[in-house]
Amino acid sequence: MTTILHLIRHAQASFGAADYDNLSELGHRQSVALGKALSHQGVDPGAIFIGAQKRHRQTWEGIAEGAGLSRTPTVLEGLNEFDFHGLLEARYRTRGDRPSALNSDRRTHFRALRDTVLEWQRGEIDAPPESFDDFTARVRDARDTIAASGAHVALAVSSGGAIGMTVADVMSAPADQMIALQLQVKNCAVARFLLTANAHYLHGFNETPFITGENEDEMLTYS
To answer: Which terminal residue of the chain has fewer beta carbons within 10 Å of its beta carbon, N or C?
Structure first.
């Protein structure tokens, strides 16, 4: 059976807060708005999957509210984000060039994250929380689990890194494209895939059906 997978990045989280892993007030509204938009598109998932992080579950709860769905999601830890805080700490543990605004300024943070991920992929960071190969394998395993679910339509909530990795993997892109894709993924954006027994295909990327010309200034966010 072919599975149509709608892979969704979580809504806006709490950048700069003590606990990033919670949706902001705007993030809650984004997730509800996406649920309404998916319902209007006729998306009726037979299986729901989420990562194990709070922002994944909170995003699904908003989508379910907006779409009028009440299904219980299956938790797949393979959909979790890599530990970017731990990875950044590992990179700067023995270096003297740690930016003072690393965790408070978005531009500084994401520039450092891009460079850190590239070093991680090349094996240049000592004792990272997770190896890049292990990250790649668990993200791939999560996609294979969804493909084996038997659902004609599946919906999954994940994070930017795992989504960037999924797109790069399906497209057989070089590893460094993972972070390039990750940094483009909008909050509550949808990537669509066809998962068949023989191959997986990308059919859409970074779609935001809940954003219009009237609400874009408020609703379009990246972190």
So the answer is: N
